[in-house]
Amino acid sequence: MHHCSSAMYLLLRCLRGCSRHSRIRIPRRLKRLVSYIKLIFNSLYFNSLINSEVVMDSILEPVFWTVEVITRWFGMVFVVLVVALTSSVVFIAYFCLLPLVLHTYPPAWIFWHICYGHWNLVMIVFHYYKATNTPPGNPPKMKSDVPFVSVCKKCVIPKPARTWLNNCVGHFNHRYFFSFCLYLTLGCLYCSVSGRYLFLDAYSAIDHFRHMEAEKQGVPVTSIGLLIGIVPSEGVAGKGVQEISQPPYTYKDRMFHKSVIYMWVLTSTVAVALGALTLWHAVLITRGETSIERHINNKEAKRMAKHGKVYRNPFSYGKLNNWKVFFGVEKRSHWLTRVLLPSGHAPYGDGLTWDVYPLKKDIMPV
């Protein structure tokens, strides 16, 4: 009995040893590599600071990359496109609308249109030129808290935004960029509002003569034709449609009407789209922050709210003072010389340090 139990013990020990030797031992380097891969995989979808904005940025990252690549190579194309579209509107205004204004408008309205139109055009051209040719500003050394723009391959301070300027928007050309958007929006609104009746007349004229040409080719007249007044009702009541003497619709008239329609549609569309962008930047300026600082301030406000504290933007000097700092207004005359007229003065500070500090509620008695 004792020998039997000893034999069973030796058999079980042998089987246990065989099972140990039969296990596949993974090298330590391979284990570390697998653990590192798992860590990387987990970092792709887990983050203690994750929120909806981070998720949207991650989803739109391929779109951002595509835009960066296209913008890097076609920045000059965008500049040419902006110049071409703006020049086309100016050409139509000078050669189509200005003669009409001079012959039909009273002297007071002629004076208003000429003065405002040329002032708005000068402001648009000046600020667009300065925004495209003014360096946005680079920090003296590479800093981790300074945004890096992959399109420009450099750091800018503190408002990186690659636009149709073929240039980054930074501290030193932010005012030019915003002023360009503002005055271009005002110019588009001016063209859209002042040309709305010309647009309606041009559209009606083209539609009217299109129906007249269709009637000449034998297209039957419908009730719609009677409704818009193309053919008189007595002509339809009779046996045939009477010939109506109409002034000739020349090629010059057609091009004039199409130019008016083109200008109104273009300026109205740009006014809506660019107006929304300008309004968004105006809100940021009123708050004393940039688009990047907005995300930082929101996170800081949430973090301090958990501790029962209120976060205040250290770069916000008050709504009116933020605009004064942005435009560089130091006295009342600067609202005219630096805001309403072209001005090439430099902004406050260098984008990293500021010379103006809110020691009082109103830092500048303007």
Q: Which residues sit in consecutive blocks of at least 5 with pLDDT less than 50?
A: 142-151, 221-244, 357-366
Helical coverage, percent range? 55-70%
Which sequence of SSEs, written as H and E, runs from N to C?
A: HHHHHEEHHHHHHHH
Q: How much β-strand is present in the residues?
A: under 5%
- What is the count of β-strands? 2
Class based on secondary structure composition and strand pairing: mainly alpha
Question: Please, could you describe this protein's structure?
Answer:
Helix content is 65%, strand content 1%. The relative contact order is 0.07. It has a two-stranded antiparallel ribbon. The chain has 13 helices and two strands, in the order H-H-H-H-H-E-E-H-H-H-H-H-H-H-H. The protein is extended. The protein starts with a helix and ends in a 27-residue tail after the last helix. It has helices at 2-22, 28-45, 52-59, 61-104, 107-133, 174-194, 196-216, 223-227, 233-237, 251-287, 291-306, 319-327, 334-339, and strands at residues 148-149, 154-155. It has a domain at 53-201 and 251-339. The protein has 366 residues and is mainly alpha-helical.
